Amino acid sequence: MQSLFHIVLVEPQIPQNTGNIGRLCVAAHTTLHLIHPLGFSTKQKDLKRAGLDYWQYLEVYEWNNLESFWQTYVPNTTHFFFSTKASKVYFDANLKDGGFLYFGREDAGLPPHILESYANQVYKIPMQKGVRSINLATSVGAVLYEGVRQSCIYERWK
């Protein structure tokens, strides 16, 4: 069975976040793509501990940079970018099976040139004003399971 979605983490910095996201990906039959530079080693024990015993079942790929990733997966309408700077909310995204869901660094988000280049495909998770952004793993979980809901795949998982 093909992956339901692809989670693309652009330069993640915190191994525990990536480990938790790996667990989410296994649970939702989703592929994880890690775009370098990373703020940790994928052999780091914190990453494995957060991923628990799921890491061995995770389909995960590492890419030297976003350009090399895009040579294989050319951005199109199935690529969705998530940022606190967006004006549209992720509930309005038509998250298709096989879609690519991009998230940026914990401390900086996605680079401005990506947000500008793909402005029609940038979404946010609604949050109360004045509140710091929610954790990266929590954000990925919210968006990924909205995609699961839209795909109705959960009916087959019962």
Descriptive report:
Belongs to the class IV-like SAM-binding methyltransferase superfamily. RNA methyltransferase TrmH family. TrmL subfamily. By secondary structure, the chain is α/β, with parallel strands linked by helices. It has one domain (5-156): SPOUT methyltransferase, trefoil knot domain (Alpha/beta knot). It contains 6 helices and 7 strands; from the N terminus they run E-H-E-H-E-H-E-E-E-H-E-H-H. The protein has a 7-stranded parallel β-sheet. Helix 2 (45-51) links the parallel strand 2 and strand 3 (60-63).
Give the tally of β-strands: 7
CATH architecture: 3-Layer(aba) Sandwich
Uncertain residue ranges: none
How many DSSP H or I helices?
6
Per CATH, what is the topology?
Alpha/beta knot
Q: State the CATH superfamily name.
A: SPOUT methyltransferase, trefoil knot domain
Structural class category: alpha/beta
**How many structural domains?**
1
**Tertiary shape:** globular
List the SSEs and their pairings:
Elements: E1 6-10, H1 15-27, E2 31-35, H2 45-51, E3 60-63, H3 66-72, E4 79-82, E5 88-89, E6 100-103, H4 112-117, E7 122-124, H5 136-151, H6 154-157
Parallel strand pairs: 1-2, 1-6, 2-3, 4-6, 4-7, 5-7
Helix pairs in contact: 1-2, 1-5
